[in-house]
């Protein structure tokens, strides 16, 4: 009888017999944990007036503690006034940090909203009211839409989203979610590397090891083995993604707490028009990270079978990873730029997803990049796996 | 029980590897003899369904070679037998058994039985990469027999076996051949001389002899060499040399 579980067990056995797999996974998990922890302790901040020095971690913890006092308050005239008063004051906390650190989140929100538009680098240069702040934010958003070449339909769709937002926004500390969101690119890059190294020989090793002829002339050597390899590759990618995500989530939550999941996404991306919380945004990015690992797995499996060698398969995946890291297509090339944003490394970044206003028309409505991305990936996966099965089942033993 | 091969042809660029071979093989051991490059392996790969012929068909009791039920009754030992170096002998057989659809309990019992049959008992927990060439070949023979195949195709099965192992192998094949179709290819005449019920000779992709060992009347090796043009002159020279020696 056809026993899928046994076939999968042996595929996992073959996979984990490779040293690269059980060496690389813990190595990358460690690297991922360190990428969250180390920057907070390796950077020191000193106060020139008091001479006191503290680490980035101490500063973040102070900000977390202090900002609890303004948690849930609306970013309105009263809060802006409080912030300005604190900035003007010379009050110093026990650890030597300025008392105005409580308002760092507000400062960051203002600068990210209108900094580019007003060409200001310090929040003290903005002296307007809350209404002016939000009006300028809307102006900055519309300027972005124009730069991105959005159609009238897209602008209308986004305007409706913008109108549905509760303005003024409420403030809340969300350090751990900020950290997780900004670590997504690192996690995704490491996952791409892991998948390229570990999965590009799933099919090719059968050809190089000459076990292909034994498998393909056995009763369940065609579709069942293909499916078992596929299942192994996809579950391995998903499990590796979850482990890597945990390696960012756990230290972030331990260091910066779990509070902030209900904070509006505008705290991280002020010009976003989505009615979304930080928790939802991080969940979306995590989902995209899983989807990205599945598409990369399918590509690795396809190229592994197509080229009958792990090297070209690995080369293509790593090449795409490097290219995505280095190449940035300007928004003025609308189509090319929008397609490029769907590359796995771009899609999992907050800038490529939450900050991306470019939409995909879909049966009379529009899909956001995080909605269209998984659909596109699903179609690509089906295409790659169907093509892969054609190549696999039609393999010929000649020419040896 | 019959393997039916009908006008099977395979061409690689400008070389015809197998040229319109037609055969009907019933139960018994069938020895396929031919020099290197004669087309034995190509023919066997087409019989096992891992090489598509340019024309012609292969079927077993009406089942086409491309069907799953055909593969279910097939046992195959390729000439260049591949294995997983880090698997133990038992793991390898258990994996092959799962590919052939054996239940876990049956697979374990059958694997132990075959390991004993091929003289690998006590070695089942060792990694294959630690096996000698002969041990690997015996493991290959064991995997081919896992599903008690009705059609057993063995491509150069005795390569790497020592004389004692060859004798044991011959006995095993002879026994299997009583109830099943066994096709055994080799270029070593003595491998098939004693056990083959039927001898098939192939040269340049063409079947040049199809008959029983009795039809050869005498020395099979000599008869085999006579069938090949490039060797015929050598044999005649040898014969002439012997006669001259006798005269002297």
Features:
A: 400 residues; mainly alpha; 2 domains; two-stranded antiparallel sheet; two-stranded antiparallel ribbon; 17 helices; 4 strands; 66% helix; B: 248 residues; six-stranded mixed β-sheet; four-stranded antiparallel β-sheet; 25% strand
Description:
The complex is a heterodimer of chains A (400) and B (248). In chain A, 66% of the residues lie in helices and 3% in strands. With 400 residues, chain A is mostly helical. Chain A folds into two domains: 4-40 and 173-393, no CATH class; 46-163, no CATH class. In chain A, the strands form two sheets. Chain A has a two-stranded antiparallel ribbon with strand order 1-2. In chain A, strands 3-4 form a two-stranded antiparallel ribbon. In chain A, a hairpin with a 6-residue loop joins strand 1 (44-46) and strand 2. In chain A, helix 2 (19-42) packs across helix 3 (56-67), helix 8 (175-199) runs parallel beside helix 12 and helix 12 (278-307) runs parallel beside helix 17. In chain B, a hairpin with a 2-residue loop joins strand 1 (3-12) and strand 2 (15-25). A six-stranded mixed β-sheet of chain B has the order 6-7-8-3-9-10, sandwiched between helices. In chain B, strands 2-1-4-5 form a four-stranded antiparallel β-sheet, covered by helices on one side. Chain B folds into two domains: 1-73 and 149-215, P-loop containing nucleotide triphosphate hydrolases (Rossmann fold, 3-Layer(aba) Sandwich); 82-147, no CATH class. With 248 residues, chain B is α/β, with parallel strands linked by helices. The model of chain B has no long low-confidence stretch (mean pLDDT 88). In chain B, 39% of the residues lie in helices and 25% in strands. The termini of chain B are far apart. The longest helix of chain B has 19 residues, at 229-247. Classes of the chains: A mainly alpha (400), B alpha/beta (248). The A-B interface holds A 1-3, 6-7, 10, 13-14, 17, 206, 209-222, 225, 395-400 and B 10, 12, 42, 45, 48-52, 68, 71-72, 74, 76, 78, 80-87, 91, 94-96, 98-101, 103-104, 143, 147.
């Amino acid at each position: 009888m056809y026993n899928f579980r046994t076939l999968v067990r042996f595929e996992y056995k073959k996979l984990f017999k490779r040293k690269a797999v059980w060496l690389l996974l813990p190595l990358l998990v460690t690297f991922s944990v360190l990428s969250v922890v180390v920057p907070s302790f390796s950077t020191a901040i000193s106060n020139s007036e008091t001479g006191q020095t503290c680490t980035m971690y101490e500063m973040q913890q102070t900000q977390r503690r202090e900002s609890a006092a303004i948690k849930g308050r609306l970013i309105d005239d009263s809060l802006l006034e409080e912030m300005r008063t604190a900035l003007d004051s010379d009050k110093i906390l026990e650890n030597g940090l300025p008392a105005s650190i409580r308002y760092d989140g507000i400062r960051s929100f203002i600068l990210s909203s209108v900094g580019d538009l007003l060409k200001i680098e310090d929040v003290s240069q903005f002296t307007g009211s809350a209404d002016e702040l939000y009006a300028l934010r809307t102006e900055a958003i519309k300027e972005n839409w124009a730069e991105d070449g959005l159609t009238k339909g897209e602008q209308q769709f986004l305007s409706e989203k913008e109108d549905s937002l509760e303005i003024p926004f409420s403030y809340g500390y969300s350090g751990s979610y900020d950290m997780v969101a900004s670590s997504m690119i690192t996690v995704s890059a490491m996952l791409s590397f892991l998948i390229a190294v570990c999965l590009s020989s799933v099919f090719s090793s059968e050809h190089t090891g000459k076990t292909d002829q034994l498998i393909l002339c056995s009763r369940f050597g065609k579709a069942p083995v293909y499916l078992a390899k596929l299942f192994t590759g996809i579950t391995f990618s998903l499990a590796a993604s979850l482990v890597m995500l945990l390696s960012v989530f756990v230290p972030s939550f331990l260091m910066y707490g779990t509070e902030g999941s209900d904070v509006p996404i505008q705290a991280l991306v002020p010009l976003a028009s989505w009615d979304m919380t930080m928790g939802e945004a991080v969940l979306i990015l995590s989902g995209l990270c899983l989807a990205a690992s599945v598409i990369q797995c399918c590509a690795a499996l396809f190229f592994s079978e197509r080229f009958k060698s792990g090297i070209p398969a690995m080369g293509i995946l790593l090449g795409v990873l490097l290219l995505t890291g280095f190449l940035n297509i300007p928004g003025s090339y609308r189509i090319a730029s929008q397609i490029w944003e769907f590359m796995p490394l771009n899609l999992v970044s907050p800038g490529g997803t939450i900050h991306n206003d470019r939409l995909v028309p879909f049966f009379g409505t529009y899909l956001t990049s995080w909605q269209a991305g998984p659909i596109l990936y699903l179609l690509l996966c089906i295409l790659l796996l169907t093509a892969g099965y054609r190549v696999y089942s039609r393999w010929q033993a000649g020419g040896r | 029980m019959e393997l039916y091969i009908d006008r099977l042809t395979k061409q690689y660029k400008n070389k015809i590897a197998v040229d319109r071979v037609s055969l009907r093989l019933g139960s018994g051991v069938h020895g396929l003899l031919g020099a290197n490059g004669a087309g034995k392996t190509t023919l066997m790969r087409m019989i096992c369904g891992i090489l598509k012929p340019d024309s012609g068909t292969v079927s077993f009791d009406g089942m086409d070679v491309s069907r799953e039920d055909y593969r279910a009754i097939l046992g195959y030992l390729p000439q260049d037998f591949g294995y997983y170096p880090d698997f133990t002998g038992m793991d390898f057989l258990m994996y092959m058994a799962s590919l052939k659809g054996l239940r876990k309990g049956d697979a374990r019992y059958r694997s132990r039985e075959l390991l004993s049959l091929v003289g690998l008992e006590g070695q089942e927990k060792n990694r294959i990469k630690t096996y000698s060439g002969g041990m690997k070949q015996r493991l290959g023979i064991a995997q081919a027999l896992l599903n008690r195949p009705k059609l057993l195709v063995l491509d150069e099965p005795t390569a790497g076996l020592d004389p004692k192992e060859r004798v044991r192998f011959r006995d095993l094949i002879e026994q299997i051949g009583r109830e099943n179709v066994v096709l055994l290819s080799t270029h070593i005449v003595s491998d098939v001389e004693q056990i083959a019920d039927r001898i098939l000779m192939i040269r340049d992709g063409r079947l040049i002899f199809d008959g029983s060992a009795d039809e050869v009347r005498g020395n099979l090796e000599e008869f085999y060499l006579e069938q090949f043009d490039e060797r015929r002159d050598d044999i005649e020279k040898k014969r002439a040399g012997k006669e001259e020696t006798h005269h002297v």
